[in-house]
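Task 17 of the worksheet. Students: predict the tertiary structure of the chain below and write it out as structure tokens. Keep your answer in the requested format; marks are given for formatting as well as content.
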Amino acid sequence: MGILSFSGRAGRLEYFLVNIGIYLLSVVSQLAFISTDPITGEASVSPVIIMLLLPTIYFGYGNAVRRLHDLGHTGWVVLLSLVPFINLALSFYLLFTAGNEFGNKFGPPPGRSPEITPEAQRARAESIARQAEEQMSAQRSSSSHSYVNDDGTFNADDIYTFQDR
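Model answer:
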């Protein structure tokens, strides 16, 4: 997926770092390709700068769409960035709001493997609970005396005996 894609999810750190990279690329390209006329003092923009800045727009919107996906929103919300003042609020929202902890319809959380989805996590938790139950029942059946009642509470009389052993 990565920086060239509009699909998938991007965490806060990736969003921040990609935006810093875009900003630095645009500043460097502007400094390198904007020239001033020595006679009139007017600045002229080279066509090269436009060619360099177009990819930054693509990367910027792709980055914002992936970040919106991490928050559980559709990528079309990025169009709000075209509205003055709302674009600032959207930028702060994307930068400071934590993403969904679990997988959503846009994929697994950034930095986690695809098999960690809510369904996979539930299945793993059920498997661990089943194994723990089997181990507890095996321990109950193998010991002649149990310090734990069937409801999981300790026998008050046996706690001191258990500590003494």
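Marker's comment: The CA atoms of residues 148 and 154 lie 5 Å apart. The two ends are 58 Å apart (CA to CA).
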